[in-house]
Design brief:
Helices cover 85% and strands 0% of the residues. Helix 1 packs across helix 2. It contains two helices and no strands. With 177 residues, the protein is an all-alpha fold. The N terminus is likely disordered. The protein has one domain.
């Protein structure tokens, strides 16, 4: 005697074996879900993956371009820096040369001015000396004429004669030096 538990519909009572109707409904639901996912969701996922891949690839390309541009900018900056340093050195040298030229020019002008002042001073001294000599001659001449008048006892009123006597007296004084 075998005892098999059967349900009222004649199907076995094993919980591990599904009913045929459930298998058919499950297969149809799975097929419908698969078709809906394949038509609606999978293309969106593929598009999102493609967009993300393109964005990453574009970002990498932009990063490489930016790095190349930064490298070019660095090279250009270094060239400009070298050029600016050379220009600054050249300007310093020019300023030094110009400064030396200005100093030399000022020194020359100062020497010329000193020579001019010295010459003017010599000329002034010479003029004053001549004036003093002339003044002394006149005073010595007047004194000599007065002295001679007293010695001779007569007036030496003649101007020409006075002038000759004074000149002779001064020449005698110069010879005696």
């Amino acid at each position: 005697m075998r005892s098999i538990n059967l349900l009222a519909g004649g199907e076995p009572l094993n919980p591990l074996i599904p009913h045929t109707a459930e298998l058919i409904v499950g297969a149809i639901a799975f097929t419908l879900l698969f078709l809906v996912l394949r038509k609606a969701v999978v293309p969106k996922f593929e598009k999102a993956f493609t967009d993300r891949t393109e964005a990453i690839q574009g970002g990498l390309e932009r990063a490489e371009k930016a790095q190349e541009e930064a490298q070019r900018a660095l090279v250009q900056y270094n060239e400009q820096l070298s050029s600016a340093q050379g220009e600054a050195s050249r300007l310093r040298e020019e300023a030094r040369v110009q400064g030396a030229a200005i100093i030399e020019e000022l020194r020359t002008k100062a020497q010329e001015e000193a020579a001019r002042i010295t010459a003017a001073a010599h000329a002034s001294i010479e003029a004053e000396r001549q004036q003093a000599v002339t003044s002394l001659r006149n005073e010595v001449g007047a004194l000599a004429v007065e002295l001679a008048s007293k010695i001779v006892g007569e007036a030496l009123a003649d101007q020409a004669r006075q002038s000759r006597i004074v000149d002779r007296f001064i020449e005698d004084l110069e010879k005696s030096k």
